[in-house]
Design brief:
Structural class of chain A: alpha+beta
Distance between the termini of chain A: 41 Å
Number of helices of chain B: 6
CATH class of one domain in chain A: Alpha Beta
Strand content of chain A: 15-25%
Number of strands of chain A: 13
Shape of chain A: globular
CATH topology of one domain in chain A: Nucleotidyltransferase, domain 5
Oligomer: heterodimer
Radius of gyration of chain A: 24 Å
Shape of chain B: globular
CATH architecture of one domain in chain A: 2-Layer Sandwich
Largest interface: A-B, 15 and 11 residues
Mean pLDDT of chain B: 95
Helix content of chain B: 25-40%
Structural class of chain B: alpha+beta
Helix content of chain A: 40-55%
Number of domains of chain B: 1
Strand order of the largest sheet of chain A: 1-11-12-13-9-8-3-4-5
Order of helices and strands of chain A: HHEEEEEHEEHEHEHHEEEEHHHHH
Low-confidence stretches of chain A: none
Mean pLDDT of chain A: 92
Strand order of the largest sheet of chain B: 1-2-5-4-3-7
Strand content of chain B: 25-35%
């Protein structure tokens, strides 16, 4: 087993070195690669490339005072074994104002969904009770809407960064019916429009990213074909595909060999299908060495195209990660405000039940629900 | 007058109040009162600043207070300061009764510091000393010293008063001359 692990690690290190060599090589011919990537048809996500892939940007200077607004969410999903079909979304939100007169606001806003109006969602023309996937998307929208509210109430509107936990790409909506997709996207794009008007840069922060967009582009580079059409790959009879030697390496691992702490990569454009609906808010991203790890930072196009906003995102995200020991302090606190623990969940259903009983409603729990409450021996 | 705390735990003999701001509290040995019916009087005997969340511990950042306020302002939102109060008396109409109130002060009652006039009334007899001495789990001698100093300050250093209280302490401590002397030497 140990021998196997050693072999695997040795091979993986070779793969990383190969990926790094490819990055250097393709950076010299980046325009060619960019064209090839655009024309190719693969089953993987390929990034938009606009500069040599190994370009690094040093950490810009940080303004002495700045504000971060951040939100995160958590939920109690409906449970058919409980007394009432209902759910709860808790939005945690923070305003952290740094510099002279620094202050912080940490709050949470729970919202209870129980009536049909709240609980049912239009899904492919039908009204269905919200399931975990629907609730997760609703929660994501509420997190973004909270950002707008936070910006309205924050006192110092200079150098404000809006920070979200995770991706800005609603890729899970790709398979959703049009009506639900439209409902979520309209709310999200409305938030993005407002942020753009107010010139408040928003960034999605992904810790320990598993994405492989850049590796995928390098694999297209390795493909001997002039343009890669994976569906018609002529090399499937070979023991190993020409693009396979760097398969398994992530962008994070690759950029950990390239970026020094504080440095960011150049910008790439994501090509997720859902982004066709984003218009001017389509998502760009870069990798950032925050010291403790390589993270992925996603921003809308209008931030990517505005150098001062881009530099602000770069320096403030890095500063936030420094303050939070490798993960943005604002996101840590927003999460702490949002998190609903198992104990809270039990307490929540207890309250629901009590409220029903107080109003003389008959409360019926499933036998399974009851058995969980007081398991016998 | 601005309140200095809000009752968050209440029992027959002691209550705990949360300070308005982290790190701020009425001083140890200070007399406080609740804005409740009846008004309950007591002595601050413990002041504690700690994390609001049991699972989160403060870090050492290596920064001055000013730097922390500028660079880590949120940490002050994650801390709480609470002070514990030993109940010594309560009000019944105009009268002060030197015994435990019929009910402890309600939770969320505001707490104020007592003014000199009130301190004088609360310390006119030696009952507060007896309450301190008969209490468990409090720094008895230190609280005697601090509360006597407050009583003395409120009277603008009345020598006769301190002699009278010294005699009371001598009666209370009986033959423990060492302890009595240690307390009295630190009051004056």
């Amino acid at each position: 087993m140990v021998e196997e692990k050693k072999n695997f690690e040795g091979k993986f290190l070779e793969k990383i070195s190969l990926a790094q060599a490819e990055l250097e090589l393709r950076s010299r011919q980046w325009e060619e690669l960019s064209k090839k990537v655009k024309l190719s048809k693969t089953s993987w996500l390929l990034p938009g490339i606009f500069s040599p892939l190994n370009t690094k940007y040093p950490l810009p200077s940080r303004p002495s005072g700045y504000t971060v607004v951040a939100s995160d969410g958590s939920q109690i999903f409906p449970d058919r074994h409980e007394a009432l079909p209902c759910f709860l979304i808790n939005i945690g939100s923070v305003i952290l104002q740094y510099g002279i007169g620094g202050k912080a606001q940490l709050k949470s806003y729970p919202k209870f969904f129980y009536g049909d109006e709240d609980r049912l969602t239009t899904w492919d023309g039908r009204r269905i009770p919200a399931d975990s996937a629907v609730i997760s998307e609703k929660r994501a929208v509420m997190e973004f809407e909270e950002i707008i509210r936070l910006h309205e109430v924050c006192e110092d509107k200079d150098n404000v960064l809006a920070l979200c936990d995770g991706t800005l790409i609603f890729w899970r909506l790709e398979g959703a019916p049009l009506d639900f997709k439209a409902e979520i996207m309209n709310s999200f794009l409305n938030v993005m429009d407002r942020l753009k008007t107010m010139k408040v840069p928003i960034a999605g922060y992904i810790s320990y990213p598993g994405s492989i967009d850049i590796i995928n582009a390098l694999r297209v580079g390795l493909c001997p074909e002039e343009v890669s059409y994976c569906a018609q790959c002529p090399y499937t009879d070979l023991p190993e595909l020409p693009c396979a030697p760097i398969q398994g390496v992530s962008d994070r691992v690759l950029f950990s060999r390239v970026l020094e702490p504080g440095e960011r990569s150049c910008l790439f454009e994501s090509s997720s299908r859902i982004l066709e609906l984003y218009g001017e808010h389509t998502i760009f991203f870069f990798y950032l060495n925050v010291g403790e790890e390589i993270s992925r930072v996603e921003i809308p196009k209008w931030v990517a195209q505005d150098n001062s906003l881009l530099n602000l995102v770069h320096t403030l995200v890095f500063d936030q990660a420094k303050k939070g020991d490798g993960y943005p302090a604002a996101l840590i606190e927003a999460h702490e405000q949002a998190v609903v623990k198992g104990k809270d969940r039990d307490f929540f259903y207890e309250l629901v039940k009590e409220a029903l009983v107080r109003s003389d409603f008959k409360v019926t729990l499933s036998r399974k629900g009851l058995s969980k409450r007081s398991p016998g021996i | 007058m601005r309140h200095v705390g809000e009752v968050v735990e209440s029992s027959t003999r002691v209550f705990i109040a949360r300070s308005q701001d982290v790190g701020e509290s009425p001083s140890f040995g200070c007399f406080v009162k609740t804005v409740s019916k009846p008004v309950v009087y007591g002595l601050v005997y413990e002041i504690l600043t700690e994390s609001k969340e049991p699972g989160r511990k403060p870090n050492a950042y290596g920064m001055t207070m000013d730097e922390l306020r500028r660079e880590q302002p949120h940490i002050f939102e994650l801390l709480k300061t609470e002070f514990h109060v030993l109940i010594t008396a309560y009000a019944e109409g105009e009268k002060i009764r030197f015994s435990l109130p019929p009910l402890p002060p309600p939770i969320h009652t505001f707490v104020h510091e007592c003014n000199n006039n009130e301190v004088e009334r609360l310390t006119s007899e030696d009952f507060f000393l007896r309450t301190i001495i008969s209490s468990a789990n409090i720094p008895i001698d230190e609280l005697l010293i601090s509360s006597l100093r407050y009583a003395q300050d409120a009277r603008k250093n009345d020598r006769d008063y301190i002699v009278r209280m010294g005699k009371s302490l001598a009666r209370i401590f009986k033959d423990d001359y060492e302890r009595l002397s240690s307390v009295l030497r630190r009051v004056v």
